[in-house]
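WARN retry 2 of 3 for item q-0093 after timeout on previous attempt; input resubmitted unchanged.
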Amino acid sequence: MLKLSTIQFISIFFCFLFGTYLMAQTAIGSGSYTTTYPGADSAGRNGFPTGSPQLSKTAVGKPIPTNDWWSKLVKENHADNLFNYPLTMKTTNNGLIVTYVPSGVIGDNSAIEVGLVGLHVSNATASDYSDWTISMNWNDGVHEFDATSGIGMPFLYFEKNSGSVAKVKVNSGTVSISNELLMIDNASSGADFVVYAPAGSTWSVSGNNYTSTLNGKNYWSMAMLPQSTSNVANTAQEFKKYAYVFPSNTTTSWNYNPTTSMMTTDFSVTPDVKEGENTNVLMGLLPHQWSNLASSSPTPSEKSYQSIRGELKMLDGNSFSVARLFRGVLPTLPYLANYSTGFDPTKLDQKIAVIENAALPSWTDSYNEGQMMNRMIQTARIADQTGDTEALNKMFATIKERLEDWLSYQSGEVTFLFYYNNTWTSLLGYPSGHGQDNNINDHHFHWGYFIHAAAFLEQFEPGWADQWGDMINLLIRDAASTERNDSLFPFLRNFSPYAGHSWANGFASFPQGNDQESTSESMQFATSLIHWGSITNNDTIRDLGIYIYTTEQAAIEEYWFDMYNRVFGAGQQYKLVSRVWGNSYDNGTFWTADIAASYGIELYPIHGGSLYLGHNQTYATELWGELDANTGILSNQENANLWHDTYWKFLSLTDADSAIELYDRYPDHNVKFGI
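OK item q-0093 returned
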């Protein structure tokens, strides 16, 4: 009897453990991931974001939107770094601070505070969002206040619950009232603002507090006027027709035409007309948009604003389209011996031999792993072109073993796995690096290398994707899901459709707002999508990659390179910046202030998708001259931040002979991979 009970207990216990394992492990094709936190590794790595998302109303129950200009709002009680161009905002217990800061952090600047009489709540939440708008909510149980802001929109849109009284606290500037209009002249950095209450409303004044019952309505709005405004009252009346048209939704859609190689992107606003006859909102187009308008698109008016991203041109309308030519990418760069004379294949064979026998390190992280795999992949492709099948097969086997290890979870393991965190609806790779786990940083950077590796495996082992492709597609969905109704991941996590580029910081945790450093690795991600989509015959993923690639190229040319001299201020001394922030840019990096790294991080890695760097030959030539002047690239200077091979590859886009000469001159140069 005792023996039977023991067996029963053991069986039940085993079934419990096995059932727990099955629940923790989610199989997807031949791969799998865990939904249960596996624990830290021996170095104490493997984290995940703390706390719970700050969401309310219609945002509850959806995948968590991180990596946006407003993402601090979902992580912290308040966000002090909201920059939508042209406005500068932050949330407080009493409502929304609205001001204008040309560049830099908002700090203590609190020119205007919009809220409700008696409103006081410890946190603001994200209550609704669309492709380029965010709605914020304050609710203390008695008063409820909502504010909506969108990229490029000079208007803010407010709503309240019945019984509450709208309040505007003016801390700087000169106030005048004209019926329902509250005008604030020179509130901050010369900027003028107008608050629009519904028709028939009046404003009451007590000190610097202005209140209104809104004539029994529950909505009002506020606009920053163009910096060129000379008569506030006249411009305020001119802008009034837009004051009562709220954006209830914003959407971005894209379409690639393989015949013409044109990528067309359509932007659309769904208006919610509160009063009046006008049905159009006022949208501000950024330089990468208005310089690439489709021939059929509406065009901006003469109204414009100056912003940290250059001139914002105003469009009276609810839609517009941009079009970009896709010039293609290569799976790999061509074999030099096929195109030049005097090339010594023996030297190349020697270098291949070194790398083919190098194992992938066991001590690594999700970022450095990708770079090490990329180094081996690029070498394997060269081996394929030179006919070195043995080397190709050896490196292929190494990459396959490691990537499949990453793509499959085994009970008890704490390294080389993926963990889906349900609270923050994100896939985390362990061991992590650079905040990929606890801050949801850089997923497009990291996953781009894994996706590239998968495309490589499918190229040389057709059918591999049938078994492992679903896990790769999961990585793609994590960083850039194309489905707004995806149950696991937010729509286009890393990529901002309106800003035109990716944001790297999961929670926009810096006072300057969100940021992106390595645009070249963002383009590596887009290139990997193109390769993977093409080789697996998945046009949706291919076109997603082309959309991100063409759009981000336009943004890079404007905001990181200022290729057309219409964005950088007079104080910018270099031809590129290494970091673009929400409301600034600079030439620092997150590990050094060395200008050599500032150049390198915008070029690395160079591959078959990097040819955009040479699209503008004039700019590329001038940039090389600056590299030469500001670094020791021509003297083989010993500097860990001076990546000779990367620089020379960039030089080859404009002067291949000189690049080869430098390579031959300094055979023991510093090679970049891993940070």
